[in-house]
């Protein structure tokens, strides 16, 4: 009997990160045959990702629909809800949010980055309509989810505008000597931004764990990444003023810390034609076959400062938007190919505005707290205090962060 060949994929997804994997699952749920470029088997990394992600309600809804959230929350300590959040300025300004005030179950959910990747990869193994391939293959739509350093997008003509903050974010896990009670804490101390994200970990709530994200001038961040544990703990105690009790590194080994250089990136355009030779090295495509298109999602399209913990939330919102556009078209405009410019423009219309607004908000906050002139410092702290007494403005801010 002749073996049945897999149907030609409607979308080929390049990107092994959370956005690429979530996209493969979301499109497969719409019944679209997809190829996901898993690449050749790689040795497991000796440095696990120490990040904890703050995911908003919209990201949680998407992961629930993909049946990934359930798998995550079944594991002890991998998901921790944030019930309260305090933001401190550098001259006494303060802003406080609570889930109860916002009439929400939680302000965000803190999720282990490595566990999220594992849960997505496991779901992909069992997903129908997903073909894991080693190399990019021909498909009308090439979805590029390669992250901030992806090279295919640049090779295929996607121009991205980029500015460096001159800072790096240091991430690791901490243990405090008192329970976190679901409270996140963030301080803006020009030019540093430090966030403590409550995270139970395998030991449960009594272990009083936190994920640390500390944005600092790059040289300082790298020095602290490589510093002896006692030096980093002393610097942390100094920066937090004991707000979370005495903080210790969960793992004193510097391999349990990592630094990411920070930049603001936005794509000039989100889709375009794949160069003729790129996927067909054997020659031009058959007459009458439309050229394939590339489309950007996640950090490949936009990178924002992590001070608001929104990068992955934006990427997952891209996934939800593209899956909705292609899913709706399958029902109402089945004659359109997945790279029909009308569909791609619909996706861009849904995503370009919210993404640009979040980039402006995070960049504006960073700019506001970057200079150290006393007048600016006084005004920004006054602004935080005023905002704290304006419930509608606070509700609006919280709604933006929660993803609606
Ligand atoms: C310190 C820090 C803390 C953060 N905290 C938060 C947070 O709390 N909440 C939040 O929402 N966001 C947060 N972010 C942002 C978040 O990490 C990113 O937005 C998110 O990881 C982007 O996902 P991605 O899949 O688009 O890209 P990536 O995570 O970069 O994944 C892309 C992957 O694709 C691979 N790849 C590249 N080229 C190819 C190719 N040709 N084929 C196949 N694979 C390829 C790459 O190696 C990489 O593994 C944080 C970022 C930092 C630096």
UniProtKB/TrEMBL annotation:
Pfam family, one: FAD_binding_3
Cited SUPFAM superfamilies: FAD/NAD(P)-binding domain (SSF51905)
GO molecular function terms noted in the UniProt entry: FAD binding; monooxygenase activity
Keywords: Monooxygenase, Oxidoreductase
The UniProt record lists the keyword Oxidoreductase: yes
Lineage of the organism: Bacteria, Pseudomonadati, Pseudomonadota, Betaproteobacteria, Burkholderiales
Domain FAD-binding residues, every copy: 295-358
Name of the protein this chain belongs to: FAD-dependent monooxygenase
Top-level lineage group: Bacteria
InterPro entries given in the database record: FAD-bd, FAD/NAD-bd_sf, Ubi_Hdrlase_CS, UbiH/COQ6_monooxygenase
PANTHER family for this protein: UBIQUINONE BIOSYNTHESIS MONOOXYGENASE COQ6, MITOCHONDRIAL (PTHR43876)
């Amino acid at each position: 009997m002749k073996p049945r060949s897999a149907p030609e994929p409607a979308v080929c997804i390049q990107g092994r990160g959370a956005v690429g994997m979530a996209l493969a699952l979301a499109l497969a749920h719409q019944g679209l045959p997809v190829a996901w470029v898993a690449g050749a088997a790689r040795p497991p990394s000796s440095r696990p990702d120490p990040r904890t992600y703050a995911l908003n309600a919209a990201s949680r809804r998407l992961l629930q629909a993909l049946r990934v959230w359930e798998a995550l929350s079944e594991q002890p300590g991998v998901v921790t809800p944030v019930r309260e959040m305090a933001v401190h300025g550098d001259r006494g300004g303060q802003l406080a949010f609570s889930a109860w005030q916002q009439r929400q179950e939680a302000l965000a959910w803190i999720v282990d980055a490595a566990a999220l990747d594992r849960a997505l990869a496991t779901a992909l193994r069992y997903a129908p309509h997903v073909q894991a391939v080693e190399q990019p293959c021909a498909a009308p739509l090439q979805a590029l989810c390669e992250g901030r350093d992806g090279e295919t997008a640049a090779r295929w003509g996607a121009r991205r505008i980029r500015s460096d903050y001159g800072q790096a974010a240091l991430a690791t896990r901490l243990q405090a000597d008192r329970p976190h009670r679901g409270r996140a804490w963030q301080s803006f101390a020009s030019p540093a931004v430090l966030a403590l994200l409550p995270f139970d970990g395998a030991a449960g709530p009594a272990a009083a764990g936190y994920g640390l994200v500390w944005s600092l001038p790059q040289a300082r961040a790298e020095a602290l990444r490589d510093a002896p544990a006692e030096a980093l703990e002393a610097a942390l105690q100094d920066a937090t003023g004991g707000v979370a009790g005495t903080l210790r590194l969960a793992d004193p080994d510097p391999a349990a810390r990592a630094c990411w250089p920070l930049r603001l990136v936005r794509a000039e355009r989100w889709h375009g034609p794949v160069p003729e030779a790129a996927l067909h090295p054997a020659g031009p495509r058959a007459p009458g076959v439309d050229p394939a298109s590339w489309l950007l999602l996640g950090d490949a399209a936009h990178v924002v400062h992590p001070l608001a913990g929104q990068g992955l939330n934006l990427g997952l919102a891209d996934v939800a938007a593209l899956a909705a556009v292609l899913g709706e078209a399958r029902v109402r405009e089945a004659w359109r190919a997945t790279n029909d410019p009308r569909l791609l423009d619909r996706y861009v219309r849904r995503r370009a505005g919210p993404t640009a607004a979040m980039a402006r908000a995070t960049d504006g906050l960073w700019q506001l707290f970057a200079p150290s002139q006393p007048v600016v410092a006084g005004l920004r702290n006054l602004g935080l205090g005023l905002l704290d007494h304006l419930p509608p403005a606070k509700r609006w801010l919280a709604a933006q962060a929660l993803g609606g």
